[in-house]
Specification:
Layout: E1 5-6, H1 12-26, H2 32-40, E2 49-50, H3 52-66, H4 70-83, H5 88-100, H6 104-117, H7 122-134, H8 138-151, H9 156-168, H10 172-185, H11 190-202, H12 206-219, H13 224-236, H14 240-253, H15 258-272, H16 274-287, H17 292-304, H18 308-321, H19 326-337, H20 342-352, H21 360-377, H22 380-396, H23 401-414, H24 417-430, H25 435-445, H26 452-468, H27 473-486, H28 489-502, H29 507-519, H30 523-536
Antiparallel strand pairs: 1-2
Helix pairs in contact: 3-4, 4-5, 5-6, 6-7, 7-8, 8-9, 9-10, 10-11, 12-13, 13-14, 14-15, 15-16, 16-17, 17-18, 17-19, 18-19, 19-20, 20-21, 21-22, 21-23, 22-23, 23-24, 24-25, 25-26, 25-27, 26-27, 27-28, 28-29, 29-30
Length: about 525
């Protein structure tokens, strides 16, 4: 019979033997394994004894497992269990190897042995739950995860699995309850909250969702995502006064919360209109003069309400204190654009732009303003100035489609046709579904006398644009004009007619229809279209 020994009663001879065994295991995952076994093999409250053969076989199994010798490791673990049938860690290690080698039934048996000797082993219970789920035994799986939650109420894995099982069982209300519970543990898990919310909304259970939100908001009154959801729910239910009462109560608790004040402003705008929101936020700003975020919001409200002059004054005050706010600069510029004063807008932006050399949006805004100015002057100097600004923006964001379209438009006005075509091809390369680039490129390459191959090539591009926007009047006209040049006159007439049905007041399209009708020998009808086009020019 191999001797077993109580750990806390080692004599000198046994201690020496223990030290020898310690040295043997240091190179095989270290002596901490022994202490793990000491604390778990026979339960924390009993006198802990060990069969050295079980330890040796277990360590051999670990070595074999590390070397990828799965079958030999399984045999070693089974041998260890033969020496010590109540060894929880060995049963668990064997179960994991069975799972790894797709032997679920054997893994299941080993895990049952784990919880037989350690009923509170959370990892074993979780694996049993997973095995039951994979076997579609949802009720059994739920039982295992309920036991996990009895041990660890906030076990997020067990909560998530319980939600999924209730979903599989068709009990979506219980699923929602677990999802809310999951979100309470980690409020960044918005997907769980959104799913629970959709379940309650789908079940028309507004009272339950409102009650849950109310409880959560009491615990987290400044959690703006949550408050926003409750407010949107109230608004969707036409409970406007409840929404307003909720906002007022929260602001009463946290009047210093700029996020809540901003949300209250939005609510006032929805319920009472733009000017009421302006009045409310003006009072708040007076009370909190250093809240520049709210001043920015008030400035935007004023711009939207057509009060650009008042907004301009407020924005200048903000920029005196916070000159680094790029969005305040862009809003200040917009106060001039709002009243069509592009030159003043340019001058203001020029004065601030050197402080923002890497701000793409401000540079693109400058390129757009200079484009509008160049259109007014229509000379090469101003077009070049606009192009320089637009290309400066493009350097900061080389594949920005809006900037490239702006450049293409400026180049076209400038008369640099080849560069326009290159720019549209670049846009198409960046995004093959850029329908505007597809249409414009198709139209431009068919100008003048071109070959049939070029026309067919153009037709392919405009047809791609029409797949994306089949009812776009300019695209229909482009297709019609290309088909006309290809000799498909009746088809051309159909496309151009569809374009005019959508927009009957486009002079260029009217002229195209006149040309088609003239070609068909319908001079009187063509004359009517020409006359309509002349009146629109």
């Amino acid at each position: 019979m191999v001797k077993s020994f109580p750990l806390n009663h080692l004599n000198s001879r046994e201690l020496k033997a223990f030290r020898i065994m310690w040295k043997r295991t240091v190179g095989r995952l270290a002596a901490i394994i022994i202490f793990t076994l000491i604390s778990s093999l026979h339960g924390a409250d009993s006198l802990k004894t060990y069969d050295t053969r079980a330890i040796d076989a277990f360590m051999d199994g670990m070595d074999l497992e590390a070397a990828g010798e799965i079958e030999q490791a399984i045999q070693a673990y089974k041998a260890a269990i033969g020496y010590d049938p109540q060894a929880v860690d060995i049963h668990f290690s064997l179960a994991k190897l069975y799972l790894q080698s797709q032997r679920k039934e054997l893994a299941h048996s080993s895990l049952l042995n784990v919880i037989k000797y350690d009923s509170r082993n959370v990892e074993a219970l979780e694996l049993l739950g997973e095995i039951a789920q994979s076997n579609q035994e949802h009720t059994m799986a739920l039982g295992y995860f309920e036991r996990v939650l009895d041990i660890d109420y906030n076990n997020d894995y067990a909560i998530l699995q319980s939600a999924q099982i209730h979903h599989a069982l068709g009990d979506t209300i219980r699923e929602a309850e677990f999802l809310f519970r999951l979100w309470e543990l980690d409020t960044d898990r918005l997907a769980a909250l959104q799913r629970a919310e959709s379940i309650y909304l789908g079940a028309n259970d507004y009272d339950r969702i409102t009650e849950l939100y109310s409880k959560l908001i009491k615990r987290m009154p400044t959690k703006t995502d949550l408050v926003g959801r409750q407010i949107r729910l109230f608004l969707g239910m036409n409970r406007f006064f409840d929404a307003e009462a909720l906002m007022d109560s929260l602001i009463g608790v946290a009047p210093y919360s700029m996020d809540l004040q901003s949300m209250k402003t939005d609510l006032v705008k929805v319920m009472h209109g733009e000017m009421a929101a302006v009045d409310y936020l003006t009072k708040v700003v007076r009370e909190y003069p250093d809240a520049w975020e709210l001043k920015l919001k008030l400035s935007q409200l004023l711009i939207d309400a057509g009060e650009s002059t008042t907004a301009r004054s407020l924005l200048m005050d903000i920029l005196e204190i916070k000159p680094e706010l790029a969005n305040a600069v862009s809003m200040l510029v917009w106060t001039y654009l709002d009243v069509d004063d592009v030159h003043q807008a340019r001058d203001v932006l020029e004065s601030y732009l050197p402080a923002f050399p890497e701000d793409f949006f401000l540079h693109r805004l400058m390129g757009s303003i200079l484009h509008d100015i160049a259109v007014g002057y229509a000379d090469s100097v101003h077009y070049q100035i606009a192009l320089d600004a637009q290309r400066a923006a493009l350097k900061l964001r080389p594949n920005d489609q809006q900037t490239l379209h702006l450049i293409a438009n400026t180049l076209e006005l400038f008369g640099r046709r080849e560069e326009v075509l290159e720019t549209y091809l670049q846009l198409i390369q960046i995004n093959g579904e850029d329908d505007l680039a597809l249409n414009n490129y198709a139209y431009l390459i068919t100008e003048g006398d071109v070959s049939e191959d070029t026309l067919r090539h153009a037709a392919e591009f405009v047809e791609r644009a029409l797949v994306i926007q089949p009812d776009n009047a300019p695209y229909l006209d482009t297709a019609g004009w290309i088909y006309f040049k290809l000799g498909h006159v009746q088809l051309a007439r159909e496309f151009i007619d569809r374009s005019l049905n959508i927009n009957p007041d486009n002079a260029e399209v009217l002229m195209h229809m006149g040309d088609v009708l003239e070609y068909l020998g319908k001079s009187n009808e063509a004359y009517i279209y020409y006359m309509r086009a002349d009146k629109l020019k």
